[in-house]
Amino acid sequence: MKCEFCGKSVQFGHNVSHSKRHTNRTWSANIHPTKVEVDGKITRLKLCTRCRRTQRRVAAKG
Questions:
Q1: What is the pLDDT along the chain (62 residues), one digit of tens a residue?
Q2: Rounded to whole angstroms, how far apart are CA atoms 38 and 52?
Q3: Domain ranges of the chain
Q4: pTM beyond 0.85
């Protein structure tokens, strides 16, 4: 999945064991469906937790 605000998505890398053997793995972005007010209308977006936190902080201030 992909964050609809910042574009964060799956990242790739390696598991590294004690013997230093590298095997492929992925890290998924922590995506949650969220209701956000955009231009006075409430819309459902799939946001990562960092963007979701930022949106809540902005909404609380203003």
A1: 899 999 999 999 999 999 999 999 999 999 999 999 888 899 999 999 999 999 888 888 86
A2: 14
A3: 11-61
A4: no
